Amino acid sequence: MSRRIFVGVFEHEADVIEAAGASREHGFEFVDAYTPYAVHGLDRAMGLERSWLPWACLGLGAAGLGFATWLQFWTMTVAWPINVGGRPWNSLPAFVPVMFELTVLCAGVGVVITFVIARRLGPGRTPEIPNIRVTDDRFVLVLDAGASDPRVVRRVFEHCHAVTIEERDVEDRR
Amino acid sequence: MSEHAASLRAPLIMGAKSIGQVTDDVCAPMEGRPTALWWGAFVVSFSVLLAGVAAVSYQIAVGIGTWGVNRTVGWSIAITNFVFWIGIGHAGTLISAILFLLRQRWRTSVNRAAEAMTIFAVICAAIFPLIHMGRPWFAYWVFPLPNTRGSLWVNFKSPLLWDVFAISTYFTISAVFWYVGLLPDLATVRDRIKDGARRKVFAFFSLGWNGSYRTWHHYESVYLLLAALATPLVVSVHSIVSFDFATSLIPGWHTTIFPPYFVAGAIFSGMAMVLTLMIIARKTMRLEDYVTVRHVEIMAKLVLTTGSIVGLAYATEFFIAAYSDNPYEQFVFINRAFGPFAWAYWTMVSCNVIAPQLFWFKRVRTNLAAVFVLSLFVNVGMWFERFVLIVTSLHRDYLPSSWADYTPTVIELVTLAGSFGLFFTCFLLFCRFLPVIAIGEVKAVVAHDRRALGGRG
What we know:
The structure holds 2 protein chains of 2 kinds.
Chain A: E1 2-10, H1 13-25, E2 29-34, H2 42-46, H3 53-79, H4 92-118, E3 139-144, H5 150-159, E4 164-171
Chain B: H1 2-8, H2 19-31, H3 36-62, H4 77-101, H5 111-132, H6 159-192, H7 197-205, H8 213-246, H9 258-284, H10 293-324, H11 327-338, H12 342-354, H13 362-365, H14 368-395, H15 410-433, H16 439-452
Helix pairs in contact in B: 2-16, 3-15, 4-5, 4-8, 4-9, 4-14, 5-6, 5-15, 6-7, 6-8, 8-9, 9-10, 9-14, 10-11, 11-12, 11-14, 12-14
């Protein structure tokens, strides 16, 4: 199934933020925006919710901590206890450095993998780019044309100094 | 008031760039042919690396009897090199993670190169414990892998094992952090190339990045999380390296000051290495508008601060030795400063404590030639710090009958040189094939500068 979209190309970050804010006020439906760098304030203008990745990171870190605690306790006191200089088998303070390192390792690597999967990135993927210059110096705002009046969209985009405004039909992959 | 506002708003990137120009400027060195200077530097570094490979192969074939170590001085320049290289890496993480959390916008011009330096330095460091094992093909025994001998597990109560976990975590997180930062820039480079093998490589590694803002939104979150994780990590790494010494019972090593002293020293030496590399790179790659005198000056101030902390630590060690009234401790420190290795000790003090004090003067901080020379002094001084710390604490122990001298063999010195060859070879290849400056982050700074000057960003 295909759907109709509006693609507005802008030259300045201030314009794309303004256009996103105005589109939201008019009740247009955002598909996405495309920018060469992380534009601050665009998330608020588009009304994006806070990322849920910190929760994933917390969970992964807790898993790493749990694993490190179990691994050290089990190997040092259950599987093969070894007397090292008369120290107790369960020498918890000595296990702290490795517990910390494995927490950081699991949280850090885990959150990146989660991000790559969640955003459908992956080695060798073909990028879907609305305008080849978005990774260089252009800002693009993409709206769903279904529910909005084309004339109103044009007027809003032109008011925000859009360089080009196009209507396109794209494959719907939602 | 208006003067204040003007100085606060002084742009970080010179030349009033548009964001398209940033892409062009940073990608220019990758797209042209390498300069004669690059080739010259590469040939020298690579030759030194090959000499190092030959020396390492020889000592693996013959055994570590090729070193100058003996029963008294059992640890010497292999571990000196290890601690030195790990320390060099620390400035990269300071710039990429700690300064990110502190919202220091100037970091964007140097963070990519500094993070690359971290990764290469950790690789150089990891080589030395591997060789020291004597049988490096059993290196995987340091990991707690199930095996047919029991399973017999590694000893989690040993600081040497903590080191294994600290260094491997540090390397992995640094590499991941660097790659995540590189991702949008790889896509930028990909979209500049029409077709061919180079495009395929960049397309593969850019993971299909398309500048989607929904992705950027999560990306910012991931970057912040990695910075927040890397910050305590970098402090833990050199603390754990210092535990290798501090948890022993050797006078001169057995002190509680070691973790903060090692961390400050690591950032000190790493900053000096960043200055050495960036002063050359900005000139040879025509990045003067991005890495400005202001950047160099800020880093020189960081060298001064950490250098003074290191100086304070040297003084504290002496004070505690005197104050403790422990004759063994006192002997070690008097021997360190006035014994057979006094030359090494005073080289260290001159390079690390006295030389950086010149950075109190703005004229020195803003003179690039002077900063470059002083950064080399710090590099030399910090190598000697580890050498002094390790060898002088060991060579005259409790029994005068077992006192010994130590002279490094040619094999050890060539291995040290080879590690520098590896480091510079990696860095030169990085400069040639990847964007040396974080394009995406610099664009945000350029837009910020222009808004501050009343433009539309």
